[in-house]
Write a structure and sequence with these properties.
Elements: E1 3-10, E2 13-20, E3 29-33, H1 50-57, E4 60-64, H2 82-100, E5 107-112, H3 114-124, E6 131-137, H4 145-152, E7 159-160, H5 164-171, H6 180-186, E8 193-194, H7 195-213, E9 220-227, H8 235-243, E10 251-260, H9 269-287
Parallel strand pairs: 3-4, 3-5, 5-6, 6-9, 9-10
Antiparallel strand pairs: 1-2, 2-4, 7-8
InterPro entries: AB_hydrolase_1, AB_hydrolase_fold, Carboxylesterase_BioH
Pfam family, one: Abhydrolase_6
Organism: Amycolatopsis jiangsuensis
């Protein structure tokens, strides 16, 4: 399939990313937000590409580089928060909507890990462009103590690149759930991660989640993988997370067996992506 590089000027800064060329008439725009330590190519790993599948299904996807990743400008240290990133990405999606939104019902956000936390921030802002729904995965409300301690043990300044062994242990499930060539191919989208992001996701995010989620007034799809190494995983945690979205018209949840944190690269990635695109279609149809 064909992808194109994207560059958006937003509030004096630049947001970059990838976009597909598929474009069925009347389909919603889909915007994908990656997690920490990866750029927009996270959603375009060979054999596991959300962008390829979406293009085949006729959806236009914009996989954006969050601030500080890919070619997107880095926010100053005193502005490098999920809330500030959400504000800049809100404006970027607004620009995409102005250019590509004619004749469409709206926008659906698909997101992973820290990208999902930022998607909730965006939805809580009640953006001016028509947000139809948010699909979240790879995020939770409680991290294991050893993960919190690991982030606190990292250098306090500058970006950090996780050792490959630690990345494999935390982000991918057992060998039976993922192919080695997919893990290797995903390394092309790996980038250093800000320690500030890692600390916010285990501290500020859980503290603010309930207040943010209560402001989300669109449908929510939520998936947590059985072998996610960054979050406490159980049916009760999935139910608790869903329960924060008290203003959402409906919330769809799944505890996904046989997969790890980077679910998009596992053997079950196709199942995830098909469910995500089904959610996109349902949000668009209900909105119409």
């Amino acid at each position: 399939m064909t992808t194109k590089q994207l560059e958006l000027p937003v509030h004096g800064r630049t947001i970059t990313g990838l976009t597909t060329t598929g474009d069925a008439p009347g389909s919603p725009l889909v915007v994908a937000l990656h997690g920490g330590g990866y750029n927009s190519g996270y959603f375009h790993v060979a054999g596991h590409s959300l962008l390829d599948l979406a293009e085949t299904a006729g959806f236009r996807v914009f996989s954006l580089d969050r601030p500080g990743y890919g070619g997107s400008d880095t926010l100053p240290d005193d502005e490098a928060t999920f809330g500030a990133s959400a504000g800049l990405l809100d404006a970027a999606v607004g620009a995409l909507w102005t250019e590509h939104g004619a004749g469409r019902p709206g926008v659906v956000l698909l997101s992973h890990s820290i990208g999902s936390a930022i998607a909730v921030h965006i939805a809580a802002r009640r953006p001016r462009w028509p947000l139809l729904g948010i699909s979240l995965h790879g995020v939770g409300d409680q991290s294991p103590e050893h993960v919190v301690n690991a982030w606190h043990a990292m250098p306090t300044s500058g970006p950090v690149e996780l050792p490959s062994e630690q990345r494999r242990a935390l982000l991918y499930g057992p060998e039976s759930t993922v192919d080695a060539d997919a893990v290797e191919a995903a390394k092309a989208s790996v980038e250093p991660v800000s320690i500030g992001e890692m600390l916010e996701i285990v501290e500020g995010w859980p503290a603010n989640l309930a207040k943010l989620a209560a402001e989300v007034a669109v449908p929510v799809q939520y998936t947590l993988a059985e072998h996610d190494g960054l979050w406490n995983v159980s049916e009760s945690r999935v139910a608790a997370f869903a329960g924060y979205f008290t203003a959402a018209p409906w919330v769809e949840t799944r505890l996904q067996p046989s997969a790890g944190h980077n679910l998009d690269h596992h053997r079950l990635s196709l199942a995830l992506h098909l469910r995500q695109l089904a959610f996109v279609s349902e949000c668009a149809t209900r909105a119409s």
